[in-house]
Design a protein that fits this description.
By secondary structure, the protein is an alpha/beta fold. It has one domain (4-274): Rossmann fold. It is built from 7 helices and 12 strands. It has helices at 85-93, 121-136, 152-160, 206-215, 232-235, 237-253, 256-268, and strands at residues 4-8, 42-45, 48-49, 53-54, 57-60, 68-74, 97-101, 140-150, 169-175, 193-198, 220-225, 271-274. Strands 2-5-7-6-8-9-10-11-1-12 form a 10-stranded mixed β-sheet, with helices on both faces. Strands 3-4 form a two-stranded antiparallel ribbon. Helix 1 links the parallel strand 6 (68-74) and strand 7. Helix 2 (121-136) packs across helix 3 (152-160). The radius of gyration is 17 Å and the shape is globular. The relative contact order is 0.20. The model is unreliable at 1-39 and 264-275 (pLDDT under 50).
């Protein structure tokens, strides 16, 4: 039998939830799976930081008039937001507004590709979040914002909770992520962070991901998937979608039932959980 592990300290520091003032009452139907991706339409907004950093940003819109929680997503090297459409649309179908830009020097058709430009992406992220709040007005609840990313996008997300701390963020998700080459300590107000890591990942190693996780001083979780590589969201799409959606329901909506489901979902997928 395959064994996977889910290590979590989400109950640490007395943080039972990060619901913002005015957050809606948790939906009793939230235990249902996320709706199919086709229910979440997408559009695109054109942003440009400083005039020379174009950041066209894909938006996955949930149903309803809002305000909705915002999940800001950062793609990996030689990638783009559409490459993660299944996962991002699942979050949108669960009621979250999801936005992800193409970073100017790391997306797959970048005119001047430069992997080292990842160090500038946290500032891009902060800029796009600010512009989204301006552009989408009442569609976004400014008190319920989170950040997520994969690979270099997860490194970007780590930056948003460390050296480039964005205090607007309530929670974060790192898929195959590690710290920057010159890491800074995690800083600012406590925010629950979830790491998802394939044990067979040779791009971002288990040791690198767990090293970043170990440095987090706040409630945190680490989901290890032994048979997954660098794309755990593709290797185990149902598990990753269900776990991350409930993570957002807890951290952004204050849904305590979703928090309690996290280890149950892990156990149902033949994982062991430890608190």
């Amino acid at each position: 039998m395959q064994r996977r592990s889910f290590l979590t300290l989400f109950a640490a520091a007395g943080l039972s939830a990060c619901s913002a003032p005015g957050a809606p009452t948790p939906d009793p139907m939230s235990s249902q799976p996320a709706a199919p991706a086709s229910t979440a339409p997408a559009t695109e907004l054109a942003f440009n930081r400083g005039g020379d950093r174009p950041l066209p940003t894909k938006i996955w819109l949930p149903a309803g008039n809002g305000p909705h929680p915002l999940i800001y997503f950062s793609h990996g090297l030689t990638s783009q937001p559409n490459d993660y459409a299944g996962l991002l649309a699942a979050w949108a179908a669960a009621g979250f507004l999801v936005a992800g830009p193409k970073y100017p020097h790391t997306w797959y058709e970048a005119p001047e590709y430069n992997a080292d430009d990842v160090v500038n992406q946290p500032a891009d992220a902060q800029y796009v979040i600010t512009e989204l709040l301006k552009s989408l007005g009442g569609l976004i609840d400014p008190q319920r914002i989170a950040a997520a990313g994969h690979s270099a996008g997860a490194i970007t997300t780590v930056g948003l909770f460390s050296g480039s701390r964005d205090t607007r963020l309530m929670a974060g998700l790192m898929i195959a992520g590690r710290q920057m080459a010159q890491p800074s300590p995690f800083a600012g107000p406590a925010a629950p962070l979830l790491f998802i890591q394939g044990k067979k990942d040779k791009t971002v190693t288990y040791e690198q991901a767990y090293g970043a996780y170990n440095e987090v001083p706040w409630p945190k979780g680490f989901l290890e998937i032994p048979d997954a590589g660098h794309l755990p969201h593709q290797d185990e799409p149902a598990l990753v979608a269900a776990t991350t959606t409930d993570f957002w329901r807890w951290t952004l909506n204050g849904d305590q039932a979703a928090r309690q489901r996290l280890p149950q979902e892990v156990e149902s997928a033949m994982l062991t959980s430890t608190f």
